[in-house]
Design goal:
Elements: H1 2-8, H2 19-34, E1 45-46, E2 52-61, E3 67-76, E4 99-105, E5 116-117, E6 134-137, E7 143-152, E8 159-168, E9 179-180, H3 190-193, E10 199-208, E11 214-220, E12 230-237, E13 248-255, E14 262-266, E15 270-279, E16 283-291, E17 302-303, E18 319-324, E19 327-334, E20 341-347, E21 358-359, E22 366-375, E23 378-386, E24 392-398, E25 409-410, E26 418-425, E27 430-437, E28 440-447, H4 449-454
Parallel strand pairs: 8-10
Antiparallel strand pairs: 1-28, 2-3, 3-4, 4-5, 6-7, 7-8, 8-9, 10-11, 11-12, 12-13, 14-15, 15-16, 16-17, 18-19, 19-20, 20-21, 22-23, 23-24, 24-25, 26-27, 27-28
């Protein structure tokens, strides 16, 4: 056991062990001797109602410790998905008609509140597990939500999918009427997009600073050519979501059109956004751009590495990101690896290149759908994968900003079909992890391992 502990600190990083790393290695040995199951700090609780079909959770935590959750609702148990008609005979529909639900768990309460629908009219949400809602909060307790919605372009009269924003200024008691972030498309691209949609401005990302600057991003088909590559658009609010500035195109027609954007902030000036670039002969590589001036300008995309993935289609994979004082961290699926799975890499403030990527779950047959969050230099990575059985939720902690990772652990999710985890840090230095179990959203808390040892 002790020999294994001394070896595992090099599972991801091959760097020499300094004094800090040796301290971490010693901590890991003690932690292993204490027993791995002690990481679990709370029981599993249900977020969504068990008589509804829930999908694709996202969570955020306000300063008072309240956990806020959103997810797609596909209807009552037993109901079929509401989809558009098939297009062109055998082609499947790209339309969907779902709802966006919300619930919260306040400190001291036994569980989550009653579920409420955020979208004003039933069926307005363009909901899929590969195009998830995003929720975030600021230091004033405002709750910000971005989600994909159905609509009709007034310019063409054709069906479109757009990105919408809403917020709550009263702690989640009610949400404002949503606003459409993107402009109306004037081209009918039905022949390119097919599936019942003439344009799509979705696969959104959002990051909110403590002061309430809201940064929103989405992939946009306006100007799309036969290459079927999207642009990356950006829009921000500097007053907590009250008013938004005009939309800006920050990358032009070189983006994979269906890999969801993700975004994070550090402080008030640093904004990071990830998307998957398409270059050469359909090489689709994840990349990160940074703004160091609060979103006024963005630097060139910096690829996170891995075997070049050539694919004549969209991978439908998002990148998870987190920041620590030491740098920016990425976790993203690469189908060109053998076996296909999640690659972790980091960069020190985007000054140079990302580190050589390493598999986060080397023993898995496949790993996917990543989520990450950080508290100081403690980093938590969560994902779903298969490792000798059905798909489960796995996680790993790093206690030193991604230099080394503790062993892979599995959440005790039982026999349910699980996937699509989400994670957020809490004010009491724990992590909230949510996931989809069959068609119910569930959640539990994880403690940082060293906190456990200190007791």
């Amino acid at each position: 056991m002790l020999l294994f502990a001394s070896q595992l600190t090099s599972t991801i990083s091959k760097r020499p062990l300094g004094a800090a790393a040796k301290a971490v290695a010693l901590a890991v040995m003690l932690w292993l001797c204490a027993g791995l199951p002690h990481l679990v700090a709370a029981e599993i609780v249900s977020v969504s109602a068990d008589n509804r079909r829930a999908q694709a959770p996202a969570i955020a935590v306000t300063g008072d410790g309240t956990i806020h959750a959103v997810w797609f609702d596909k209807g009552a148990v037993g109901e079929a998905d509401r989809k558009g008609a098939r297009v062109g005979g055998s082609r499947h529909s790209h339309q969907a008609f779902a709802d966006l639900y919300y619930a919260q768990w306040q400190p001291g309460q036994p569980g989550f509140s009653q579920n409420i629908r955020i979208n004003p009219e039933v069926g307005q949400v363009w909901g899929f597990s590969i195009s998830r809602p995003v929720i975030d909060a600021d230091a004033e307790g405002r709750i910000h939500v971005v989600y994909p919605g159905n609509g009709v372009s007034p310019e063409t009269g054709k069906s479109v999918a757009s990105s919408f924003y809403t917020r709550s200024t009263d702690g989640g008691q009610q949400f404002e009427l949503p606003i459409q972030l993107n402009g109306h498309p004037v081209e009918d691209l039905s022949a390119l997009i097919m599936g019942g949609l003439s344009q799509a401005q979705v696969f959104s990302g959002m990051a909110v600073s403590d002061a309430g600057t809201v940064h929103t991003f989405w992939l946009d088909t306006r100007g799309m050519s036969e290459s079927r590559r999207a642009s990356l658009y950006y829009r921000r609010s500097e007053d907590g979501g009250g008013e938004f500035q005009s939309e800006v195109r920050i990358q032009e027609n070189d983006q994979c059109p269906c890999c969801q954007v993700s975004a994070i902030v550090r402080g008030e000036s640093s904004v990071f956004v990830s998307a998957r670039r398409v270059r050469g002969d359909n090489i689709r590589m994840p990349a990160v751009m940074r703004s160091s001036d609060g979103g006024t300008t963005f630097g060139s995309p910096l690829e996170t590495g891995g075997v070049p993935w050539r694919l004549d289609g969209c991978p439908l994979k998002l990148m998870a990101m987190a920041t620590t004082p030491s740098g920016i961290h990425s976790l993203v699926h690469n189908g060109a690896e053998e076996p296909p799975g999640l690659l972790y890499s980091q960069a020190e403030n985007m000054a140079d290149a990302f580190s050589a990527p390493q598999k986060i779950h080397p023993d898995a047959a496949i790993s996917d759908s990543p989520a990450m969050a950080a508290i100081g230099e403690t980093l938590l990575a969560v994902w779903h994968g298969k490792a000798g059985g059905p798909r489960r939720i796995f996680y790993r902690f790093s206690l030193d900003g991604g230099e080394h990772f503790l062993p892979v652990q599995e959440l005790p999710t039982g026999d349910a079909n699980v996937g699509y985890p989400a994670v957020a840090a809490t004010p009491d230095s724990q992590f909230a992890v949510a996931w989809q179990a069959d068609e119910v959203i569930q959640m539990m808390r994880l403690k940082i391992p060293l906190q456990r040892m200190a007791h």
